Structure formats: structure tokens, C-alpha cells
Amino acid sequence: MDLLAIIRxxxxxxxxxxxRSVLTMMGIIIGVAAVIAMLGVGQGARQTMxxxxxxxxxxxxxxxxxxxxxxxxxxxxxSTKTLIYDDMxxxxxxxxxxxxxxxxxxxxxxxVFGNDNWATRLNGTEPxxxxxxxxxxxxxxxFTQNDVEMSANVAVIGETVRKNLFGTTDPVGQTLRINNLPxxxxxxxxxxxxxxAMGDDQDDIILIPLxxxxxxxxxxxxxxxxxxSAVSRQASYAAQQQIxxxxxxxxxxxxxxxxxxFVRNLADMADVADQAGQVMTLLLASIASVSLIVGGxxxxxxxxxxxxxxxxxxxxxMAVGATEGDVQQQFLIEAVVLSLMxxxxxILFGLSASYVITKTLSWPVLVSPVVILxxxxxxxxxxxxxxxxxxxxAAQLDPIEALRYE
Amino acid sequence: MVTTSxxxxxxxxxxxxxxxxxxxxxxxxxxxxxxxxxxxxxxxIEIARGEFVAIMGASxxxxxxxxxxxxxxxxxxxxxxxxEGIEVSSLSIKELATIRNHKLGFVFQGFNLLSRTxxxxxxxxxxxxxxxxxxxxxxxxREALALVGLADRISHFPSQLSGGQQQxxxxxxxxxxxxxxxxxDEPTGNLxxxxxxxxxxxxxxxxxxxxxxxxxxxxxxIAQYAKRGIQFRDGKIRRDERTENQPRASEVIKHLPSLxx
Lengths: 406, 261
Ligand SMILES: Nc1ncnc2c1ncn2[C@@H]1O[C@H](COP(=O)(O)OP(=O)(O)OP(=O)(O)O)[C@@H](O)[C@H]1O
Ligand SMILES: [Mg+2]
Description:
The complex is a heterodimer. By secondary structure, chain A is α+β, with helices and mostly antiparallel strands. Chain A folds into 2 domains: 3-52 and 272-404, no CATH class; 81-259, no CATH class. Chain A has 13 helices and 12 strands. Chain A has helices at residues 3-16, 18-56, 85-94, 128-132, 145-150, 159-165, 210-218, 235-250, 266-309, 311-319, 324-360, 369-395, 399-404, and strands at residues 60-65, 69-70, 73-74, 98-113, 116-125, 137-140, 154-157, 175-178, 181-189, 205-209, 225-230, 261-265. In chain A, a hairpin with a 2-residue loop joins strand 8 (175-178) and strand 9 (181-189). Chain B is of the alpha/beta class. Chain B has one domain (19-253): Rossmann fold (3-Layer(aba) Sandwich). Chain B has helices at residues 63-70, 93-102, 119-128, 134-147, 163-175, 193-208, 220-223, 249-255; strands at 21-32, 35-47, 52-57, 78-83, 86-87, 104-107, 181-185, 212-216, 228-233, 236-242. In chain B, the strands form 2 sheets. Chain B has a 6-stranded mixed sheet with strand order 6-7-8-3-9-10, with helices on both faces. A 4-stranded antiparallel sheet of chain B has the order 2-1-4-5, with helices on one face. In chain B, helix 3 packs across helix 4 (134-147), helix 4 (134-147) crosses helix 5 and helix 6 runs antiparallel to helix 8. Chain B starts with 20 loop residues before the first strand and ends in a 6-residue tail after the last helix. Adenosine-5'-triphosphate (ATP) is lined by residues 30, 32, 37, 39, 57, 59-65, 109 of chain B. Magnesium ion binds at residues 63-64, 109, 185 of chain B.
């Protein structure tokens, strides 16, 4: 009996019990859709993350004030006061792999413009920060080194802040109030979007001169971080070594003692974030695939019912010459058709779902053909695996017993 | 495998030719818990190619049991069954399926049609398992339906057919793979006498063309159309004799009142 004929018979049999077939497929549909959506979103997230990290500049290093342990208690990140402006100067002076550096400290601010107000991250830094992070301006420009020396009340705002406070007004030259102090806006940064690694909005930010932040807002003279760009991508590992050595020296940390700072290499961060993303994607996908197995069990159950219901039909087919193989094939193909149709519907649902999710997060839609192929193969495998036992059961019926079955 | 075609068949009871069906001392028991039903108690029979045999006997006499064994659907508990010289008990399940498909046509007591399948598809069923093309299978199925006078009922479902028509679909299905032996278990049960004679006419014509026919019937009227009558009682053969001057069903029909009267 040729395959096409069996497939035709199988689809016809399934079409006879439409409701039942669709309900049986549901498990597979949901399972495949969930796996596709999870993989699609996960891939999209990873891709975005990589692009963002790449955009930050792959030779970027991040030096952060470390945690300090005081009488056995871990304080939070940046709780040390040992990272200072002179450390930055020393890095510039003594680390040949470092090309440029920008100091920084962070706080948060309540920002008011007109009747609108907005709570956001407030970072103090120096103008070279924007070069190091390769972050261009969509309007206006950075504050100047002169502003830093004067501790001027000037600010650069991110796209989210602009949207929420200014709407259609041109912010450059306007004065807004940060923690009740007036600041003149000098520039608006181009949007960077949501950070896929951290999940936070990178455009929800205001940057002001470091000295202004230190003197007028936090009152803390130390730094929380230093951004360093290495001379090249390859040099970033050397820069990491050099900076760590230098800072241990300067902070008089004895061998064996913990650092009071940390140095992150963006290339490392990219790897870590990528791995985390991959693990997350796989985790989500494997949770989703549990539903595929549940779907498979549903198919097995319905196929067993079907074999029992059609015992006489099986007996008759055998009586007119169907071999065990023919009967087994027929039921197996029925199960596979069921699971493949479910799989196909699941792929369509999964694609739409991941499209909607990634669109709302403005990530690229990334469902590789490989994923779709895997979904097809997998749902087929589910059909074969869970259809095998019922088909075997059908094939092993005794024709005369089956014909007598009521 | 021994192949046969209807053209090389010989006439009734020709001596010396190998019998198509040779049954020796066949027993069949059914175990039902404590009790044992002895359905066949030593049946021996020889049927030559081209014979037309009617098996009669009281209900429960073992006729269907015997037919199922002849049809390679069931196995005897004891005794031998040789089909065209082949020891059936030595055949594998797959070989049995092939024999049922190619050599035997079986008409079941009760029609055993697939209910949600058209007449044509029911008839096509055996062709699906034969090594012939779909087109050839369909062509043969249409021919078989035409032979039993149902050319105009091809796409009817069994529920849309009368009992006699359903029975004829079952006969067409048994004939579609051009078997050399037709086994029919009460093909005229529940049918009016005219329809019964029509079916006997079909059988006689097929037999004229060389087909070996074995049928089970309760009615002596029907049995008279066969060339040989066998009487079953309590799982044994009580009588086995040739029928003299069997009537031609085609002649009898002419004298029967037509159903419109
Ligand atoms: N599967 C079975 N299990 C147990 N006993 C059976 C089975 N099939 C048949 N029998 C018994 O075997 C005996 C013969 O049955 P069989 O069906 O061969 O009779 P029959 O001659 O065909 O009768 P009828 O003319 O009513 O069709 C009966 O006593 C019946 O009860
Ligand atoms: Mg019977």
C-alpha cells in the first residue's frame, strides 16, 4: 500500500472526528508554539544584547568601586570610598593599554520641567564619556570640560527623559530642575533602547558634570566607576591586567586580600550575558517542551481509544489481506499526521507569538529555519513515539477475534 | 507461492487433479473458562478446483467455524488443512495475509462493510493491500460492482443501501482481487427469495468461469443451485453428495414474479 494512500486514509479518518482530532492536537500545538516563541524571543534577546554590547565598543572596560566587607558584613556595590579621581589619572598615566578614561558617579534624581516630573538615573561624568561609549547626540552637544571645572548646572538627557518631560518642545537650551536645582539642557542622546542584558531602559538617564554631581547633589568626593577604552580589542585583556595591578598597588591591597574594586572587560561581559541568555532560552524552551510530551500522551490516549473503537475495521482489513505491517503503518501514520498537523499549527502560532512579543520590545524577530525544522522533526518524532504502542496493539490483533468484537 | 488463474481451471471433481482444499480430521475447540466448546469434531473434506459446494446444517453446527478455517482467518485446534497443496499451519502471519488477499474471497455472515465508506471504497479495500496501482484497483472495483449489478450505487454509503445491495457490495469486495476460491457464509441470509436467486445466479456464472465456490446456507432452495451439498451437524459432516440436475438461477428468475407485482 503506498504512502500517499495511507496518508489520505489517515487524514480522512481524522477529519471524521474533527473536534476530537483538534483537541488531541492542542497539546502539540501549545507545546510547539511555546517552544518556538521561547526560542524566537530568546534568540532575539541575545541578538539585541550582542548588538548593544558591540555598540558599547568591544574594547570598553568598566572599573567599578567594589564591595567592602566590614566586620563580616557585605556592603552593596560602590560602597567603598577608595576609588578616586587620582586613580583615573593614574590609569591614564601608567597603563599603556588604556586609551582614554572617563570617571563617573551615580545617583538618582527627581526631574521637573514645567508641570511634568520624572524620576531617573543621574550620572556625573566628563565629556569624553560619550566618545568612549560611542554614544552620539541627536540634538545639541555634550557639556564641556570647562563646565566640569566650573561645576556648571548643565545636563545631557536621554531619549526617554526627553519624551516624558519635553514632548514636542525642543529641550536644548531649556532649563529643567533636578532635585530642585536648575539645569540647562545642552544635548539629547540618540536612543539606545532597552538593554537586553539587564532589561533596563538605557535612555532613561541624565548626565551632568561629575563635579556638579559630587558637590551639589551627592556630596561624596569619591567615584563609583571609571570607563576605560583600550587601544584595541586585543589590548582590552592587557588593559584589564594593568588596571587591576595598578589599583591593587594604589589601594595597598596585600596579596591574598580581596580587591575593593572590579574590572570588567566588555568582551567578557558579552560572553557572560550570552551564556546567561542561552541558558535562559534553553530553560524556557525545555519547560515549554514538557507540554509537547503531554501532547504526545494525549495522542497516545486517543489512538488507543481509536484502536479499540475500530477493532472490527482492523479485523476486516486483516481479513481482506492487510498484513500486520499495513495495519501498524496505518495507525502510526495517523498518529504522525495528527502530531504533524498540530506541529504545523503550533509553528504558525509560535511565529505569531514571538513576532508580537519581539515587536512590543522592539527586538528583531529571530526564528531561524533550523528551529522550525527542529519543531517539525520533533512533532513528527512525538507522533512516532507515542503512536507506536497503539499501532503495535492494533497490528497484533487477531483477525477473527477482531471481527467478532462488539 | 503457487499462482493460479481462472483460465487454467478444470471441471468438477476431476480425478487425479490436486484438490484446492484438502481438510483432514480438523477439530476446533473453544475454551470458555471451565467449559470447552467442541465446535468441529473431526471434519475431513476434499474440494477440487471449479467445484460449487453448499454447506448446510442447523445453527451452531460449526459451519462458520469451518468457513473461518477455510478462509485462513482461524486455525484448527487439531488436524490438517492444505490449500492448493500448501500446509496452512506452516505459513507465517504475513503469508496468511497474502493468501487471504490474493487467493481467497470471503463473504462474511453479516456483511461487515465499513459504515462511513462508500460502496466503491468498500470494494476497493482488498486492492489497497494487493500490489496493484490505485487506478487499476479502482477499475477492478467498478467492474466488480457492475458484475453484481450495482454500477449505479458506487458512491452510496452502506446505510443508504438495502440489505441485498449491501450483501452484493460484500460479494463484489470478495471478488475484486480475482480470487480462485470464493467462500461465502450465508450470503443470502435475510434476503427475499428473488434477491437470493439473483445472488445464486452471480455465483453460478462465476463458477462457470472456473471459480471454486463454497457457500453456507440454511435454505435447501438455495443449496440446490450448488453442484455438491454437505450437511454439518454437531461439528461433523453427516452427508456429502452431488446434486443432480441443479437448476439454472438465471432461468428460475424469469419465472419468479417480479418485485413490482
Ligand atoms: N468465539 C467463540 N467462542 C466460543 N464458542 C464459539 C465461538 N464461535 C463459535 N462458538 C461455538 O461453536 C459452535 C459453532 O458455531 P458456528 O458459528 O460455527 O455455528 P454455525 O453453524 O455457523 O451457526 P449459524 O448457522 O447460526 O451461523 C457454537 O456452539 C458456538 O457457540
Ligand atoms: Mg454461522
